[in-house]
Amino acid sequence: MKLTSEKLPKNPSYTSLSHFAAKNTKVFQWRKEKTDHYSHADLVDKALQLLKERIRRGDTMAYFLRGQLYFEEGWYEEALEQFEEIKEKDHQATYQLGVMYYDGLGTVADSEKGVEYMKKIVDSPCPKARHLKFAAAYNLGRAYYEGKGVKRSDKEAERLWLFAADNGNPKASVKAQSILGLYYSTKEPKELEKAFYWHSEACGNGNLESQGALGLMYFYGQGIRQDTEAALQCLREAAERGNVYAQGNLVEYYYKMKFFTKCVAFSKSPNSRLMFKYPKR
Fold this sequence. Notes:
Layout: H1 17-22, H2 40-56, H3 60-72, H4 76-86, H5 91-103, H6 111-123, H7 133-146, H8 154-165, H9 174-186, H10 192-204, H11 208-220, H12 228-240, H13 244-256, H14 260-267, H15 270-275
Helix pairs in contact: 2-3, 3-4, 4-5, 5-6, 6-7, 7-8, 8-9, 9-10, 10-11, 11-12, 12-13, 13-14
């Protein structure tokens, strides 16, 4: 399985820079202007100026938001420096440092240091770290599965992912729910009923990859009784949302069934052309 880090969960107080701006309209007066004539670079520059002023006044949230803006713009070295400055005061900065050191963003990859920061989040008793715990546990599970920064252990990875998935809680790590579906369908021996359960939970919480996976499980009767109608419904919905694997499988199915009009409709998607080659006649 190829795994990626869990993105920073939304802060229940300020979910984004724009949300922060909306709560501070006296400071962000520029938001009342017509911004059509601003380029993206202009808006970023303006935001940085305003955040700098808030930092000068001692606004601790502005410190993190500046680092996050750097991160989202791909200015990883600047983001790393900003997060390092406030890591003892801001759990979100600690979380982002864990991701950056593990994945080597703005610095040489240091998986042990990344794991250390994620463990701080998982073990923290502070209420302000609560919304980060599930995502941090997913990332720790990834480290154990990959054997980076810790001794490789599928058992510990599974334990952490189950904690992160929190019985299908939509406010927990939906990524962990989806990964559990993939994990149980690829491990030896396979546990396809568990795989189907976790893909169902993740799909119900909006996960696109699991929606496509459910389509294939229904189609081939893996972990559930074979149901072509349910399979096609899952695959169509996933394909319409941009799942390239679902698009490719639908093209193949329609081609074999000689539903050429539908086959052509899905094959016109740029993504499906990358995933599917027509069978040779």
